[in-house]
User: Which sequence fits this backbone?
């Protein structure tokens, strides 16, 4: 994977928040949202990728005993 | 009947009624030597005496409890004793719904929420005759970012061993209540350690059973694939009694398998002779944060079990602790945001900082990263299960630190982050936090005992063997 700038800016997260309908978000929290977005991106990329396309996710259910 | 004072004692034990354990009280009630009315009044008196400073409760349901106690007493007198929970007072974290009673989840967003349903676990306890005293303090929505900001509508619960210290979260009130004797036992919930961490900080036995063993139905969800419900108790036997009532299939919870529930007390005192117990001493670089006192107590616990005939085998987790933690974080962020998206989108200003920051994290998780976490999770589950199945039980650190001080806020988040509890939320294996003594300052120490899927009985058996060989249950906080 090529080197990527993982940092989110306040302007970027403000735009992202508006695009996804975040209403009434405290104005003083956008800088923190940018910090957290950067941390989340770094955390996500730190997850080792499974080598095979047949390595499926852990499922929440199996079909046979599905109830409820 | 005269109402007892908060310090009323039962003559047969010499201890205050609020410091009786479930097993002990139930034997007295079953024998007709202790009245449920007297017991419930003692606990209500205890709450009135200390909860103004302890803050273990959000809502006390005194009149409902009194009515239930009168009914229990009449049933027992009429020869209709239901079993060991009949007449026993308990409380639940305020994310368990109880029909007709306010469930706030510690949040401004739910201050007036009254559910029409009752959590299956609560309904099962009440059917067994246990008496609900009320709803207990919690981190907002039972979750957060690990910090405590004192910005919620209810005062923060205090640790009975030192009121200047944190209880551990997120089942804060459950830890405080059982240690201080404002409830005889409590139910908490655990997504990354939220039963076991308050148990650790408050000197209790807290059990997160196998994923799906105890129904989560009609509890406010935090993260579907990591959430567990379960008991915090003073003794291991108390835990077994509560588990007996709440474990088992529930059609209202899609995670519950139709696995038979064994008699958890049948072999509780069978000892550990011949059992293979894997001790996880090396947790990699992250394990270096473990307090020296907790590390020493872990070694002592292994020696105590070995002296009773257990075969101690040193083992290692199949992956770095960091992988379990990262998987937990990403799944938890994403699922939690999915559950509470509307609240975050429209009312985030009403949230406390801890919950809002967690929602912010979920708001920015990429789908590919979430799925990478769930793919890695499947691999971790398989590898960890192979390790667990190679032993009868595992013994390892849980919370790495003792309860931190509120006036040292930089130590609060590390208490929650520096743990090995998340391992068993990722994998779903049963794991119990057991009190392993006290540090030089008198603060509780802890370790985890984990077991095979749906083999809660062996986890309890090992914990009972350790508890029986140690004096830690003889000491109560001074509050």
Assistant:
């Amino acid at each position: 994977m090529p080197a990527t700038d993982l940092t989110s800016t306040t302007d970027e997260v403000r735009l992202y928040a508006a695009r996804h309908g975040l209403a009434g978000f405290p104005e003083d929290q956008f800088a923190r949202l940018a910090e957290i977005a950067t941390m989340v991106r770094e955390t996500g990329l730190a997850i080792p990728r499974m080598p095979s396309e047949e390595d499926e996710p852990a499922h929440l259910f199996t079909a046979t005993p599905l109830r409820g | 009947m005269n109402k007892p004072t908060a310090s009323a004692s039962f003559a047969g034990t010499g201890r205050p009624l609020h410091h009786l354990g479930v097993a002990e009280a139930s034997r007295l009630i079953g024998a007709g030597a202790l009245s449920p009315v007297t017991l419930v009044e003692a606990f209500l008196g205890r709450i009135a005496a200390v909860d103004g400073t302890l803050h273990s409760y959000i809502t006390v349901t005194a009149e409902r409890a009194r009515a239930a106690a009168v009914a229990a007493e009449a049933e027992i007198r009429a020869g209709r004793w239901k079993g060991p929970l009949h007449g026993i007072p308990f409380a639940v974290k305020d994310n368990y719904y109880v029909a007709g009673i306010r469930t706030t989840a510690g949040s401004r967003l739910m201050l007036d929420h009254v559910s029409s349903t009752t959590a299956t676990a609560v309904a099962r306890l009440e059917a067994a005759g246990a008496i609900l005293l009320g709803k207990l303090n919690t981190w907002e929505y039972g979750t957060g970012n690990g910090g405590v900001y004192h910005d919620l509508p209810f005062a923060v619960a205090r640790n009975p061993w030192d009121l200047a210290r944190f209880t551990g979260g997120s089942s804060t009130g459950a830890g405080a209540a059982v240690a201080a004797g404002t409830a005889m036992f409590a139910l908490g919930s655990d997504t990354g350690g939220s039963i076991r961490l308050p148990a650790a900080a408050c000197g209790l036995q807290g059990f997160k059973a196998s994923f799906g063993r105890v129904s989560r139905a009609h509890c406010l969800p935090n993260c579907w694939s990591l959430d567990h419900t379960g008991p915090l108790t003073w003794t291991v036997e108390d835990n077994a009694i509560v588990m007996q009532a709440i474990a088992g299939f529930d059609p209202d919870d899609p995670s519950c398998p139709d696995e038979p529930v064994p008699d958890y007390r049948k072999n509780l005192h069978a000892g550990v002779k011949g059992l293979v117990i894997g001790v996880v001493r090396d947790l990699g670089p992250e394990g270096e944060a473990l307090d020296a006192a907790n590390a020493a107590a872990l070694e002592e616990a292994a020696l105590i079990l070995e002296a009773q005939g257990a075969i101690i085998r040193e083992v290692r987790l199949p992956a770095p602790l960091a992988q379990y933690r990262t998987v937990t974080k990403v799944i938890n962020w994403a699922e939690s945001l999915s559950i509470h998206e509307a609240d975050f989108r429209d009312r985030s200003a009403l949230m406390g900082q801890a919950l809002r920051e967690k929602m912010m994290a979920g708001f920015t998780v990429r789908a590919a990263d979430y799925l990478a976490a769930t793919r890695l999770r499947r691999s971790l589950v398989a590898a960890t299960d192979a390790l667990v199945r190679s032993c009868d039980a595992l013994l390892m650190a849980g919370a790495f630190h003792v309860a931190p001080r509120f006036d040292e806020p930089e130590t609060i988040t590390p208490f929650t982050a520096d743990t090995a509890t998340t391992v068993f939320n990722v994998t779903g294996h049963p794991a119990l936090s057991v009190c392993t003594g006290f540090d030089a300052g008198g603060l509780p120490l802890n370790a985890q005992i984990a077991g095979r899927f749906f083999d809660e009985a062996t986890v309890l058996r090992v914990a009972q063997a350790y508890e029986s060989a140690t004096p830690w249950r003889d000491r109560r906080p001074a509050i």
